[in-house]
């Protein structure tokens, strides 16, 4: 049994981790660490845990946490905050899966530019292993410290990588139009996240300048340069990314526009995806059918669909994931499974909750 | 392993049964029977089953179904239709859990009056065992044919029974104000179920005359008369029931108003509930806290809260269930577990999906 | 032309007042007073006013406001705060319509008990005129200071008054089960008002102890004792009130349960309502049809429907209003029209916005 | 006073026309024609018209309609159906504003290719005047027959035209990612429009092949070739258009990606928009701020925002409209005002209904 603890347990990502881990057959949940809710009973903060294995857990403060008693720590802290705490905790020798943006870039300069904060632990950033499971499984297996990807980034990369891998599309003119449910913004008290401000409406935010732009672009460039296999390409990726907020609780849909280098066809593209994802358990490639959030919300699956437009020689790729699962906690558990050498879908077999 | 089949597999209750059963560790799903979708692949009708154990299932027609090859049949057909089919299927000797209203009344006259149809199989109705697990576990254990309760009925009875059991409240003036998500209406094509007609609005329907009124009242009277234990009361239950449609997908909240026979207190009432439900796994009694649909949606739990009003000597009981789970498919699986002598929460341990 | 100003202009009630008043053919909006947004341009706080007459307005602080330059002030402040400010402003001689709970009770003791604050201006509370237009039109005509009713209270009283007026129902056992959209809670930053916490769920709150309980009961008792006409009844009203939060933006639906004193019928009850509301422009009595929020959201109408239950001799009344309109700003404008002797529906003729 | 009638009165566009027209100070509504609801009272089909001027209207069949008694007919029929009926009605000499796609293309071949039906009245299509008011006001003034634009088309063209007009962007690589509320799909009974299928989810549909693609492209090409002014460009427009369904009732948001021909800046682009729209009452150009559906839903306004991305020399344009208003009925009334020489915003001054 794997003993796990969660730091930042009472954010939305934290509780999603708990929901998954308390039913994972090979996990024992050790400590739940929360600054704002320390010493409270978990069920008094989140009543849905009544009747679960966590029913009688009490949240503890970080200073009362002994990291060395756990086999794995999930750090579900905000970026900036995670830097210091994760780099402290790793000294205990316990493995960490970090959910923040702090350790996703080996190149600190890009991080500092897009996040607008100084990075105080560049050496840890350098050795952190990027946790997009389907891309980086081999390194994840042996990692000490895993940087779990951003939600938008996971949805985008899963859709783009096969097309870049096969050299079918131009890498410098990728457009990603992304739509996310409101849970992606966390539980922070902002007036623009109130029900009355979000319901029955929609908006774009941070066009071209959202931090996940830089993460998508950075990983694509690492990929082109051979960080994830033996390739070495001269090409550089450049992406334009616009996120939108939609009035749903969970789910991301990205619509990606790519220019083909040559004529193609729906059947060729389907083959490329099939080849790339082969036996992947959590990536579904659809043919003559489009993904929809309700088909995967509540599950760890990503669904990919696409349409080749003969008129303009472009491919429209549509990907959907549950931002709380494949976009955050689900992928973190998937990475944990890889790390501890157990079946990758252990504890992650749920089908979407529909209706 | 229990071999189960589902008749009426592609209605909302049918797919919820599949969602639960494909992950149940002691179940093998045998046949999925659907009239409207026979010969189609399940994933072409409900894409969320891609990646599940049911991925390669094909729906079959009733005439191609051999009931004797299953250990248990879930019949998820509409009332009226279920009458004939369930009474045919039971002849195979296979046990049945019937989800319709057709077999919930031993007294056929009440059924015929409220459902407005003739009952052609009164002998089967007589021997059907009512499937409110917490009320009728002993009979369910040995049943051949289980009539699974209505969704509103489950939410209402769980809230009312302990107060009647303890003789604290008047039985002839119970008012139930119930609110249900739209999935309760099924997948039928009616203009009043369109998104644009249901979103951002609310309405009452069938006040005082909804069929579930009669079921609640009937079971309460059976209870008073000793059908479920050794009691024998002179009292008669009379309820007034008003359902409402709310713009959510799943979940029922009932607000029940009961007149006390004498002064009481919140702490006395809490004790009554605690005593009544004792070690029940799926009923949670809250103290100084009110139930909320999000705390149980996606789980098989019922949550009960209450408030004693000293000014008017009334008790306000609030109960919430997920209409697809404890209100339908979840309770059916719970009954299956009882019937086959396995742990009652096997396959039903999921925590609410929140956010 | 009537010169009006709004104090507390940037709360939800304030902006609804502006939306209505900027299109009112006999109104000039003078000053918009806001503490939190003073000196900001209105369109920078609420962009929907771009393109309206208010496009170039700047919000001002209370200390820069000259009340005597307006003919009427709408005070849309929270209770407690309104007490002091309204009682200061009234000294200018300008008429006031106050939207808070501070001046709705002539009997200060009831206010202090239910609101839990001291009332520092009982003399003003005494002379304030209660602004349920259909009940109190004659006094409103000549008022100096109008206390606009609560939203739940308006929906409840409109449904109950005709039945009490005709002495058909018992006054001491009225049960009101009310459901409100989230805008009723205002724009305050509370985590339970976040989209992710309110969407796709429902809950009850403050059962039996919500402040509007006391207002409904108080006005009913005033009515019985002849405060609004020449009657003088020995009866006392006692109500039990449970509000619920539903995931819609605007709209209230109340389901009211009343015990009849004698046998009645749907047609008798319809006549009572018709007689009571006669030529009222904003109250619609439905026959053989139930009200629905979407039929009135965005309009100042109240819709009333009902069902007489022969089995239990009870009447179920269902009323719907838009909490922002007939429940707040719309009724305030209606009262302004009465006060200034212009057609009661001036500026209020909008039909519900559907879909 | 203008006497108007509506054919296809009980579709969603029809009832939105009624909502607007019954409050228009210079309009008398004459006949409401409906095939499916002929002889019914309007309020029995749409209860929200209770209390309005239309309260006592009865819907009539087409064969009982005398078109010559009206000054203007709004035809709100589906495409295909509208062809025959509008071309019959125009013979009466009464002016028509047609809401369908049938007469939006002077070039019948494009229509036939994208709509998949034969056009039986090419001569009427030739003389129909395209009703994007801001583009074509001069011709609308003198029109006999106006083809009102598609909803997606209006949102897209308003965002794109100023940039093409100023020759800043490439015309052959425009990408439009559009999102629409469900009312855009009308009231037809399709299972994918049920609440339970649309709520809390999102999907793309018809990528690259939606009919509105062809309309956007066709009008842009007409514009480039000088159909709307004296220009004559060699350039051809080519657009790639992907619509999505979002769980809101009304509203469209389009995110448009355009390649610049040269370096630009946010301030230059703002000037271009300002110059192009000058004194337009219904088009709002935002600076340093992004449009949001809630700011215009319930109003006839379009809001435009944009972001120049220096990294990729692209412009991201975001436009929002209410699909029922500026996207359909509102623009039709705007065109009626132009046609009859009255103030363009008569009857259209409503501010967005928020919250």
TrEMBL record, chains A, B, C, D:
Keywords: Amino-acid biosynthesis, Arginine biosynthesis, Cytoplasm, NADP, Oxidoreductase
Localization in the cell: Cytoplasm
Keyword Transcription regulation found: no
UniProt keyword annotation of NADP present: yes
Entry's EC annotation: 1.2.1.38
Gene Ontology CC: one annotated term: cytoplasm
Catalytic activity: N-acetyl-L-glutamate 5-semialdehyde + phosphate + NADP(+) = N-acetyl-L-glutamyl 5-phosphate + NADPH + H(+)
Gene Ontology molecular-function annotations: N-acetyl-gamma-glutamyl-phosphate reductase activity; NAD binding; NADP+ binding
SMART domains referenced in this protein's UniProt entry, alphabetically: Semialdhyde_dh
Residues in Semialdehyde dehydrogenase NAD-binding domain copies: 3-143
Pfam hit, one: Semialdhyde_dhC_1
GO biological process terms held by the UniProt record: L-arginine biosynthetic process
Superkingdom as given in the UniProt entry: Bacteria
Metabolic or biological pathway: Amino-acid biosynthesis; L-arginine biosynthesis; N(2)-acetyl-L-ornithine from L-glutamate: step 3/4
Residues at the catalytic site: 151
Function: Catalyzes the NADPH-dependent reduction of N-acetyl-5-glutamyl phosphate to yield N-acetyl-L-glutamate 5-semialdehyde.
NCBIfam families linked: argC
Family: Belongs to the NAGSA dehydrogenase family. Type 1 subfamily.
Name of this chain's protein: N-acetyl-gamma-glutamyl-phosphate reductase
Organism: Halanaerobium hydrogeniformans (Halanaerobium sp. (strain sapolanicus))
Gene (UniProt): argC
């Amino acid at each position: 049994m794997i003993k796990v603890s969660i730091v930042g347990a009472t954010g939305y990502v934290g509780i999603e981790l708990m929901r998954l881990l308390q039913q994972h057959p090979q996990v024992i949940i050790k400590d739940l660490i929360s600054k704002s809710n320390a010493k409270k009973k978990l069920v008094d903060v989140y009543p849905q845990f009544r009747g679960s294995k966590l029913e009688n857990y009490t949240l503890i403060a970080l200073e009362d946490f002994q990291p060395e008693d756990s086999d794995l720590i999930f750090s579900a802290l905000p970026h900036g905050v995670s830097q210091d705490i994760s780099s402290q905790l790793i000294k205990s020798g316990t493995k960490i899966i970090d959910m923040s943006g702090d350790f996703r870039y080996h190149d600190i300069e890009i991080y500092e530019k897009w996040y607008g904060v100084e990075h105080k632990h560049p050496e840890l950033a350098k050795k952190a292993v990027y946790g997009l499971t389907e891309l980086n499984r081999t390194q994840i297996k042996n990692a000490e410290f895993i940087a779990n990807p951003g939600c938008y980034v996971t949805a985008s990369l899963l859709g783009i990588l096969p097309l870049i891998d096969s050299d079918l599309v131009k890498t410098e003119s990728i457009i990603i139009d992304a739509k996310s449910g409101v849970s992606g913004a966390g539980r922070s008290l902002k007036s623009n996240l109130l029900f009355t401000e979000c319901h029955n409406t929609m908006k774009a935010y941070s066009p071209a300048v959202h931090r996940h732009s830089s993460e998508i672009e950075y990983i694509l460039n690492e990929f082109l340069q051979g960080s994830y296999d033996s390739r070495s390409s001269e090409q550089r990726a450049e992406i334009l990314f616009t996120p939108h907020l939609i009035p749903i609780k969970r789910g991301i849909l990205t619509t990606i526009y790519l220019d083909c280098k040559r004529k193609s066809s729906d059947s060729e593209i389907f083959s490329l995806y099939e080849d790339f994802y082969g036996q992947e358990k959590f990536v579904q490639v659809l043919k003559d059918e489009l993904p929809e959030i309700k088909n995967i919300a509540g599950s760890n699956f990503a669904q990919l669909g696409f349409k080749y437009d003969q008129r303009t020689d472009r491919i429209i790729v549509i990907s959907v994931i549950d931002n709380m699962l494949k976009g955050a906690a689900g992928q973190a558990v998937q990475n944990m499974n890889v790390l501890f050498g157990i079946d990758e879908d252990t504890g992650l077999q749920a089908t979407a909750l529909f209706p």
